[in-house]
Design brief:
The complex is a heterodimer of chains A (169) and B (658). Chain A has 1 helix and 8 strands. Chain A is mainly β. In chain A, strands 2-8-7-4-5 form a 5-stranded mixed beta sheet, with no helix packed on it. Chain A has a 3-stranded antiparallel beta sheet with strand order 1-3-6, with no helix packed on it. The longest helix of chain A is centred in the first third of the chain and has 10 residues. The N and C termini of chain A lie far apart (56 Å). Chain B has 658 residues and is mainly β. Chain B contains 4 helices and 47 strands. In chain B, the strands form 12 sheets. In chain B, strands 5, 6, 43, 44 and 47 form a 5-stranded mixed beta sheet that branches. A 5-stranded antiparallel beta sheet of chain B has the order 20-19-23-24-29. A 4-stranded antiparallel beta sheet of chain B has the order 4-3-45-46, with no helix packed on it. In chain B, strand 23 and strand 24 form a beta hairpin. The chains are: A mainly beta (169), B mainly beta (658). Chains A and B meet through helix 1, strand 2, strand 5 and strand 6 of A and helix 1, strand 37 and strand 38 of B.
Chain lengths: 169, 658
Amino acid sequence: MSFLGPATLASALGGCLLAEPAELGPGIRVPPVIDPATVQPIPLRVHTHERRDTIHFAVDVWANEADGKLIARLYRNYGLGDQVTIDMKRADPAPFGGTPGTIDFPYTFTEVDADGCYQFSLLVTHFDNVDDDLVAIDQADVALMTWWINVEVDDVPNSLADCPQLGAP
Amino acid sequence: MRRCPRRGLPASCAVVSRAVVSRAVVSLVGLWLGACSEMADDEALNGAEPLNRCSVDVECGAEGRCDGGRCLGEALEYDSVLVEVTVPVTPSAGSQAGTRSFRTLEDLPQGGGRVEVDVPWFSPVTVQLSAPPCVDGQGEPVARVAGVCPEGSASASGREPCRYDFGRVPLEVTFTPAARSVGIATERYTVLSSCAEGDCSAGVVRASLPPGTYDLYLRPDPSLAELDAAYCEPVPELGALTVPVAAGLSLDYRLGEPALLPVEVHWDTSHGSPGALEGWRLDMLDGISARRISRRVTLAEPQVDDAIERYVVALEYLPTAQSAGTATELVRLVPPDEVVAPTVLVERSSLGLFGGPAVLDQLTALPAPVEVEGQLLARAERSGNAQLIPVGGTLTLIATSLDGFPAGTLASYQRTLTAAGSGAEQGVFRATLLPGKYRLRALPSGSCSELSPCTAEDTLCECPLGATELEGFTVAPSPALQAGKTVELAWRTRLGGRVMATTGSLAGAAVQATAVPTRTTALATALGMEPFVPRAAAAATQGDGTFELRVDAGDFNLAVRPPATSGFAWLVLPGVPVGLGEASLELGALQLPLPVPLSGAVRVPADPEIDGMDYAILPGAMLRAFVAAAEGTVVQVAETTADANGEFELLLPARLER
């Protein structure tokens, strides 16, 4: 019942209570955070797809508003010799504790995706953490999610040996 | 207070209790801060995020009403939706974590209302596999003993004696949800069989599947190397399976006795070198699914009759469902990997019309391949002049007619090549091709920074080139090396519009264009004649509601997705056609349809006797709603995430833009 105390007091005074402004310390850059529970598709298994399939690589992200806008990039085989940028977009930060912002990249498998296994990686970082080529500078300010996708074109099943090796630049 | 149910159920009952307490606290705090509520509203109105708000009905147009401060639609133009439920990977989701299932909601309340979404438990499915029986001298079935036909009996098709051993030759069983056939990219479930309780003359497959209808495909474990002829190699076969709700399924599945199709493949050595078809493989495809439904036979040791080589084989296959009384199987002749030659396809019904073996003599010549070299280019302005700039990409060449093949022969020949993305050979591609005419599909790779440098200020930072399809790419029979061919990529089409809501221009909404799912035939698939599939594209609406996408040519489903918290429904335009080379397609002003709210709880069935409740709630599940679109496919129209109490609200658009 202790929480009713201030409410009763406020009602009696007929005003509203305003919280003290937060004490701001020196700015500490907090990297964006991807909510692992809501990642689509589920990143816990290898997904098999055929050409012509369209899927959505989607993550919910929180980030400090004070750290500025975000940039998200979707790569195929990130950090590998055949790395390809699929798409990118800017996003507004959704503060921690509130409703996260959703970053959603629809992707259609085409002839570009030869039979085999791929990593698709979604990187989210702050907009002031990219170079002129929009590549992240400080890897500590990056949130990363990777999916393993098996593109099955022929009737010979791919094995994990067809998957690229994990790696980072 | 409800106690938490049995093991594996989501741990949600405690969450409910906490939520009830939280709501009570929020209510009290709301009373306490009542004097400040107006200020909070003003702040929200001034924020960037659009909100569906109203005070009176007239603000919502003729087909809407103001209800609870939101404009809502009066009626849906459809009465059912297919809902995909994905359970988040959280400890509270129990054994449902990460599962994905589908449920059709029918007879929807037209003005919106409450509908519970029950997520089914995955059902344990056990399939007992058994070998086909043998037959005795009178044609009566005789059970196999230890996988072998007993003395005095033989296989019904008269094939060589062999032993069924599911330990030596396991079967791979693939379950494909029926939702895939309507255009949803669902996962498949693949399981390998094992011996049945120590008896390898029978097999067993155990899987855990969400209830629904599945296409079934069984084939020998494809990772197996060459098999010992003493063991039977089951013929791939197709089936269907319905997994019931809340019940295990155990069924006996007897493998079919394959039929034998005697085939003679003829090769006229007066038109080509002797033994040219040695090593080619013959098999049969189902005409609907394009799945292989026969064993593969490799051609060898032909009988020679004058100038004709006859490869005599018996193709073991399992007949498939007939369409209008006509079998739809396709016989396929495939060259070895190292041979530059087409794959030949013949409808089985057109073979062996007059009794005797089916004769496949369509392959009358094998033209000499030629080396082709070319460059992938894009036209761009440089210093006021149009120039062709080399770019990297992927090219797929699909033969539409091949020189030296008689008209009417279905010959499939396609090659996918890569054009270098950088360096001295940028844009250059090389291929060994058969002479003939080709359809060419080219896709650019990378961000094409040589055409439009990507800077941090760009809103659209992507390669401006589009996927391009060209007819009539010709490869002549000579000379043997043909260089200098160029392929010019088209620029993407600008697809623009302006989105309006009841409150005015809609800012900050995601706009996504995805390819319309298409249904194709097995023959079209085998021949590479499927319609071209454009890539997905996405953007966001600006402050004035305008949006601009850069898209490939093709047919798109366009979806405008306002922020989830806005209270607006999606705007969905199915089947927007974009022509090749079309510079711009302006859709004009697009009015968001009014939302019709469908709310409820995402639940999982519980056992009242054990758990003390009929259902447990499932927090945090993602729901995607689809409605029927053209040609038996579906299009997504809404998406939401259930809250911590499992409660959801799907804002269905009252109508689709047609």
